[in-house]
């Protein structure tokens, strides 16, 4: 894990204005340090000792609990911290019977339970300390935070992210198996505006993404994506008021309907021929209108029907039949006959 | 060929953010076209698309056809909407000073085969 600022290096973004460019390179780990609060990851089970206890009690406690520092509390208030270093000093003086308050450190660096992890990381880096007591709004001792707690907390959050994404993927790809009916289908509907070149292709893009999400293989998603994109651009370029696209996804087939209310095509047979185009110079400058659209669609789909009436409108139906290994939904991919 | 190599070979400039692409994606070949319908009809997946067209539809076309990268020839710089869309769909955009013919030749010589399907009848 990089850039957690465990060392004394300044944070990567310190003193910098966060531009879009910089924001793009903020890692999820860094983001989490700004989202996770200290009290979410700190250790709440506290091992404490009274200031009146003896230093030999401290030595016993450290050995027993495998810890290198003990918080000193009086009436639940934090009054000091005694570390192995303090214990060594005490041993050198041969004063194991001395009370804790003679050797404990009282100049304490503490954290606020309601702050985010970034604050803790900064304090760890600034002081070089490995463990910091955590106080709540009322300055009451509520926990202790180590660098290990921070790492563990972030790893747990990352695992949670990962798990959520897995669940989402799993649910989407099992949609058709989880829902029981005599015939289940998923219908996606899109409204396409005339001459909306700025958003042209966004419906196709969403349809392709949906298919991939549902577990379709990339070749199939590509074929459908290209066919729908051509149809979508036709609605944008060649209609009076745009049109609609509906995609009906079933485990065994994908049916795409694109229709509009005019102006209609005079001769659908002619329109299907490669190179036949009625597009204006303006459209050609955009890279379209080469007369390849309908022909291209016919190569991408298994069945295609073009119906049109001048002055009424056009309906284009495209169907893709899914072979066993292409079927939408993960379960179908593993199902053997 | 990796994206970094492609940038070298085209003497190009990466126009999209580095965080908005997969640096390890391999480019298997190339295709040069200004007609998007030609691209949709004939390009194979994982190609670099060389084009002189700079509108957002180039990116949409590339997305549908699983294009690995787009190189704008003759030093053309696309409008902001094109770059934004490319970053969204994780397709790197490169601007190269060479013309389409020159660049196609250079890349072909350096090991990128044509990924354009032959015309069927």
Structure explained in plain terms:
The complex is a heterodimer of chains A (337) and B (121). Chain A is an alpha+beta fold. Chain A has 2 domains: 20-153, CBS-domain (Roll), CATH 3.10.580.10; 176-334, 2-Layer Sandwich (Heat Shock Protein 90), CATH 3.30.565.10. Helix content of chain A is 41%, strand content 20%. Chain A has a 5-stranded antiparallel beta sheet with strand order 7-8-9-11-10, with helices on one face. Chain A has a 3-stranded mixed beta sheet with strand order 1-2-3. In chain A, strand 8 (243-249) and strand 9 (253-260) form a beta hairpin. In chain A, helix 10 packs antiparallel against helix 11 (218-238). Chain A is rod-shaped. Residues 1-10 and 331-337 of chain A have low confidence and may be disordered. In chain B, helix 3 (56-64) packs parallel to helix 4. Chain B contains 5 helices and 5 strands. In chain B, strand 2, helix 2 (36-42) and strand 3 form a beta-alpha-beta unit. Chain B has a 5-stranded mixed beta sheet with strand order 1-5-4-3-2, sandwiched between helices. Chain B is globular, with a radius of gyration of 13 Å. Chain B has helices spanning 3-10, 36-42, 56-64, 80-88, 100-109; strands at 13-14, 29-32, 47-51, 69-72, 93-95. Chain B has one domain: Udp-n-acetylmuramoylalanyl-d-glutamate--2,6- Diaminopimelate Ligase, Chain: A, domain 1. Chain B starts with a helix and ends in a 12-residue tail after the last helix. By secondary structure, chain B is an alpha/beta fold. At the A-B interface, helix 10, helix 11 and helix 14 of A face helix 2 and helix 3 of B.
């Amino acid at each position: 894990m990089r850039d957690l600022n465990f060392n004394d290096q300044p944070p990567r973004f310190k003193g910098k204005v966060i531009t879009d460019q910089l924001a793009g390179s903020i890692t999820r780990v860094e983001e989490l340090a700004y989202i996770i609060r200290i009290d979410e990851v700190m250790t709440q089970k506290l091992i404490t000792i009274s200031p009146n206890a003896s230093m030999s009690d401290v030595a016993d406690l450290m050995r027993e609990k495998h810890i290198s520092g003990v918080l000193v509390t009086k009436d639940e208030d934090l009054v000091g911290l005694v570390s192995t270093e303090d214990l060594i000093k005490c041993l050198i003086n041969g004063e194991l019977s001395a009370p804790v308050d003679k050797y404990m450190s009282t100049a304490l660096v503490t954290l606020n339970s309601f702050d985010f992890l970034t604050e803790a990381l900064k304090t760890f880096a600034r002081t070089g300390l490995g463990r910091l007591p955590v106080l709540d709004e009322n300055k009451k001792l509520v926990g202790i935070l180590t660098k290990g707690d921070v790492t563990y907390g972030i790893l747990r959050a990352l695992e949670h992210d990962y798990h959520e994404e897995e669940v989402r993927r799993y649910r989407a790809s099992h949609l058709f198996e989880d829902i029981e009916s005599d015939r289940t289908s998923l219908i996606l509907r899109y409204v396409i505006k005339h001459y909306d070149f700025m958003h042209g292709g966004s419906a196709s893009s969403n349809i392709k993404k949906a298919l991939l999400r549902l577990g379709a293989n990339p070749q199939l998603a590509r074929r459908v994506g290209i066919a729908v994109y051509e149809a979508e651009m036709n609605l944008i370029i060649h209609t009076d008021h745009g049109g609609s696209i509906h995609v009906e996804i079933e485990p065994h087939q994908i049916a795409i309907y694109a229709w509009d209310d005019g102006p209609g095509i005079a001769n659908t047979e002619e329109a299907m021929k490669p190179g036949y185009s009625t597009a204006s110079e303006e459209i050609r400058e955009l890279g379209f209108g080469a007369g390849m659209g309908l022909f291209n669609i016919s190569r991408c789909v298994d069945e295609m029907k073009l119906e049109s009436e001048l002055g009424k409108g056009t309906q284009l139906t495209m169907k893709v039949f899914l072979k066993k290994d292409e079927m939408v939904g993960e379960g179908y991919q593993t199902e053997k006959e | 060929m990796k994206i970094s190599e492609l940038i070298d070979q085209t003497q190009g400039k990466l126009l999209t953010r580095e965080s908005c692409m997969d640096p390890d994606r391999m480019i298997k070949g190339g295709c040069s076209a200004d007609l998007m319908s030609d691209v949709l009809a004939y390009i194979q997946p994982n190609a670099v698309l060389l084009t002189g067209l700079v509108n957002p539809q180039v990116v949409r076309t590339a997305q549908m056809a699983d294009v690995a990268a787009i190189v704008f020839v003759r030093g053309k710089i696309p409008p902001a909407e094109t770059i934004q869309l490319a970053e969204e769909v994780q397709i790197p955009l490169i601007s190269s000073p060479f013309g389409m013919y020159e660049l196609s030749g250079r890349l072909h010589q350096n090991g990128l085969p044509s990924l354009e399907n032959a015309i069927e009848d």
